[in-house]
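[job 0412] stage=fold_complex status=start
inputs:
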Amino acid sequence: MKISRDDVLRVAELAYLDLNETELEMYRAQIDEILEYIGKLNELDTSNVEPMAQVLSDDQTADATLREDLIVPCAVAEDVLKHAPDPEAPYFRVPKVIER
Amino acid sequence: MTGNWTIDGVKEALAAKKVSARELAGDFYKRIEERNPELNAFLALSPERARRQTDRIDALVAEGKPLPPLAGVPVAIKDVISTRGITSTCGSKILQNYVPPYDATAVERLEVAGAVILGKTNCDEFAMGSSNENSAYGPVKNPLALDRVPGGSSGGSAAVVAAGLAVASLGTDTGGSIRQPGSFCGIPAMMGSYGRVSRYGLIAFASSLDRIGPFANRVKDVAAILQVIAGRDPNDSTSTTAAVPDYRSEIEKPVKGLRLGIPKDYFAEGMDSGVREKIEAGIEIFKKLGCELVDIRMPHTDYAIAAYYIIATAEASSNLARYDGVRYGLRVDGDSLISMYRKTRGAGFGAEVKRRIVLGTYVLSAGYYDAYYLKGQKVRALIAQDFRDAFTKVDAILTPTSPVPPFKLGERTADPLQMYLADIYTVTGSLAGVPGISVPCGKIGGTLPVGLQIFGPAFGEARVLQLAHAFEQAGGATV
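[job 0412] stage=fold_complex status=done
writing structure:
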């Protein structure tokens, strides 16, 4: 077994994801099978391979595309707040974070 | 009247005043009203926005002014692509009422070019799936066989074009989500190189893999749409400054003498015999067109699914952290901030999205990062090298798009790994960042469409389109 029920619980904690009992066991079994399959990557010796995080060519790298830090108009605040679950302009309201 | 419109056909009819842009859009909406209830391909319609655009086009016609390249062309947009003022749910409950305050660059460019946006198309939730059965709003039906899936994740975008409910559409491709539904619905569907089309306004799934691209009923129209949406966008730092060639003239060039690689590794076990027969017949067409077929090896192909599902889920787990019930979308109240996050995400995401968040968080977590995520990135480098090596020997690579023809609704939902394995021929090009197209390559038993995939080197879109166009003109769709 690659992944335990505790592993799934821990990961769900990290991801702020409520899972019920049925989901916990279903995902554990399915992800176990997927990880078992992914294990085939160990057949490859990659000790001398550089990891590839992006496929960017030279003109797409951060250095090539950094721009001037200019202020431009962006008048969407009202529109954005209008669609928020609990807005109080100019803020988003959330449950109390700090207990006094 | 909505039968077989092409982009040129629309423009000619408008210019000759045989139809107005408003009438044409009206006819498409009428057809949508008739067919969408059974297909479930549109999630939202945007008649007011379409009306503003058709008024603009009809005014140009009335004044005798030159028409832009996509004047009056009715198009549909996948629901993971932001459209100002039109709900963009991503096929998810968590964004059920989300109305973006801005347009994706690709959408803006389509409209500037004269296209008329009819509405938003159904898809797998956050583009995660290969059958469109992961949408919170129900599956899309394949218009060619109503008991079968249209493919995914851009199933709605493929279905509306195949059913004649739009002349073209935009989809997104992360591991095959444009090409595979194009194949399943029997129409051409293209993913440009990573960086060719701006991702600004594309609601992210896996940022190093996501790409926007077109569906249409013929290759020439795919080229026309790509022409408009391609090119540098200051709002996407990963979009390239490389010049955009004139695809519509490039595709007319002869293909004689081009070298086409046939990778043995793609023709191994697991391919449906009907698919194999059609693809082999399709390859014969290229031979008749005077192309040289070359056997090549791409030795890391068999590891692509494993690397892809590590990288894509890792990036997804990070990208989807933004759905927390604070700024937009669903909120489920909790007695603390954390409990609000957890309940919102637990209630708002569907099963496949949760599965991928759990897997992606796991492969990134302390103690597993090197064994999974880093390993996946290293294997990605090997797969990209396979492509670079191949393109020193050949001009393009031919493969099937999918190992199986469209399957029946519900047939594969129980086993996620089996569903993932069906992405084998498409994820390789996604990881490598190269362009790929799926073109219709006959129908098994005269009913189930097969797609032939053509990969080109990075920024070799013109070559890919040229070959696809020649194949189509030579009768590829009816092999």
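[job 0412] summary: The mean pLDDT of chain A is 91.
[job 0412] exit 0
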